[in-house]
Amino acid sequence: xxxxxxxxxxxxxxxxxxxxxxxxxxxxxxxxxxxxxxxxxxxxxxxxxxxxxxxxxxxxxxxxxxxxxxxxxxxxxxxxxxxxxxxxxxxxxxxxxxxxxxxxxxxxxxxxxxxxxxxxxxxxxxxxxxxxxxxxxxxxxxxxxxxxxxxxxxxxxxxxxxxxxxxxxxxxxxx
Length: 175
Prior knowledge:
By secondary structure, this protein is α/β, with parallel strands linked by helices. The protein has helices at residues 2-14, 44-50, 110-121, 144-148, 151-156, 161-168; strands at 20-26, 32-38, 55-64, 74-82, 85-91, 99-101, 124-126.
């Protein structure tokens, strides 16, 4: 079954019009993990459609791009699973206003994650069926969370006063 799923991923990557890089890793229990980097963000809908019916989207994560990725500000990872095999597809949206196409048409679970990514990172999700904000009021600029409280600060300070001091801009009272 593992070899069948590996071959399925290889065939899927080979169908990408603009090409893609594929690498594999395994854990100590020999579980296989596929890592795909699409050369062009426009190939994402095709990948999302062709991974069906065996594959499903688990979640989407966005982060700051690696320093060597000179053209991109963000890296977006789509975490799929095909019959228990993890397949992570990475995109590097470029430009002053980075954007990615929506895959909600094929994977309903993308709805929330795409909207959250747009709101938190300011990455435009084109053709999203429901682009309204999740958390922030329409008058608040996107990327507010990244500008006000970087994720690294939030996770490092989640259980201390320093997170709230950063948000409120003042020192909290000792109790």
